[in-house]
Structure formats: C-alpha cells, structure tokens
Amino acid sequence: MVILHVKRGDESHFLFSAGVQEAVDVLVRDITAIFNGRLKVGRICAEMAELAEHGVTLPPNMQGLTDEQLVDLKLKDEWEDKCVPSGGAVFKKDDIGRRNGHAPNEKMKAVLLKTVDEAKALISKKQVEVNVCVTMAMVKEALAQLRGAVMIAYPMGLPPHDPIRMELEDREDLSGTQASLQVLEESECQLWWAAKEMQRGKKLQDYIGKNDKTKLVVKIQKKGQGAPAREPLVTNEQHKQMMLHYYRRQEELKKLEEADDDSYMDSEWSDRQALKRQFQGLTNIKWGPR
User: Fold this and answer.
1) Which of 95, 132, 148, 167 is deepest in the core (most CB within 10 A)?
2) Which of 197, 222, 247 is the last residue of a domain?
3) What global pTM score does this model have?
4) Do 213 and 227 meet the contact criterion of CB atoms below 8 Å apart?
C-alpha cells in the first residue's frame, strides 16, 4: 500500500493508505471526509469540555444575558429541568453566560473528559509520528465514543440547540464562524504532489508507477488557491541536527587550536634549566639597573 502523508499548507494532519490502482477522485473523496471528520471530532471535544464544566447551553435568545436581564425580559430555560445530568448537578456559573451552570458531578465530569482525551488520541496528529494511518472508521469510532459518553452523563439527552447534539446529528451551522473556514468541500478540493496537481479521472499509478511500497507527501488544497509551497529539502528536525553537529564541530576545532598554543613555554614551570640554576644558586639573579 502507498502511504500518503496528508498536509494542509505546512501543517501535518494524518497518514492515509491507498493502492496504486486507486482513482484520484476516490482519494479526494476519502481524504476530504477524514479531514472534515477530524475537525468535527475536535469541535465536539471542545464543546464537551465546556459541557463538563458548566452544563448544557442556554437557548440562543438567553445567551450572554445577565441574571437581571433574564428577569427583566422574563426569559426562562424550558430545558433546564429536562436535561439534568446523571447523579445530579453541581452549580458552576458560566461567566460568559453561554451555558446554564448546572454541571455534571465529578464522576460524570471525569467520564466526559476521559472520553474527550481518548477521542482526540484516536485521530491525533501524533499518529503520524508512530506511522498509524487514520481511517474513516477511526473517525466514526471517535464520534461513537463521544456520543456514548454524552448519553451516560445526560441520559435524558441534550437540548436540540446544544452544539454537541447538533454536531452528532449533522445539523451544525458553522456559517459566520472561524470553523467554517477550515471545512473543505469535496468538489472544491485538489490533491498536490511534487508541485503537480493530481488530476481527477486519473489513478495514483499514473503519477508514481506501480511501486506500492512508497510514501508520498500530498497537500490538500482548495481550487483557485494555486500550487502549495514546496516541501523543504530538510525537515526542522534534520536542520536542528545539522546545526548541532556544526556547533560541536566548531567546539572541537577551538579545543584543537588551544592545544596547539605554545605560549605555555614562557611559564616558569616549563623551564628545563630551572632545577640546574636552583642548585647553582642562580635563581634570584635579576639583570638591569636597580
């Protein structure tokens, strides 16, 4: 299998395996799905950390308002009594007024946070370092773990406006957010390798031949953005090692230069005639006028 190291710009994301007979259209579809799936997992994990800390989100018309404003406007969260965490709630006020403050107890909080860590690890960028390829099945497994943890902590479910529920039901609305700029549309995606766009309608072997024991760095790009920057000839780690080697070599050369210094010959201890003069009583003779 060919290993594709998928990058977006200079940022490394994940490894993907494919056969040389794989069509570029299929590669774009699968890589885009995994790319967007990892983003979804990341968004849910961020929201679940807030869920564990401050409870479910308030209705949109109540978010950001102070307690006095809620009283004046006679607004009440109808989901507050319906979406109670398992084992009872612990009040932890949300200072930004986005969540209702009825957080899960410590046991349920631990379940949520542990699951978040496990889901992140499953699709982490660190998988590249250990040569583990990320698949769509792994993304779905991470989503299933997160869904299960939410069901354990909130058996009655989350309100329909909660972003976690919306993400798990594929109803999220990212318009106007920074997250929307990161999501890629399959129809707008391109794969680049060796400064060449991999054209749809062709196969992977049209670019690399029939060698299926190779590893490629491919960059995923939106149409119209032009060719991505070329990969550097040496990696950051290789550059660090080269600089370290250069520094050590310079230190060695310094020591060698110091070893060749013969100024020590002027020192008293290096005078071969000193012992002879001492026996002859000539050690304290000084020349010149007094």
Assistant:
1) 167
2) 222
3) 0.78
4) no
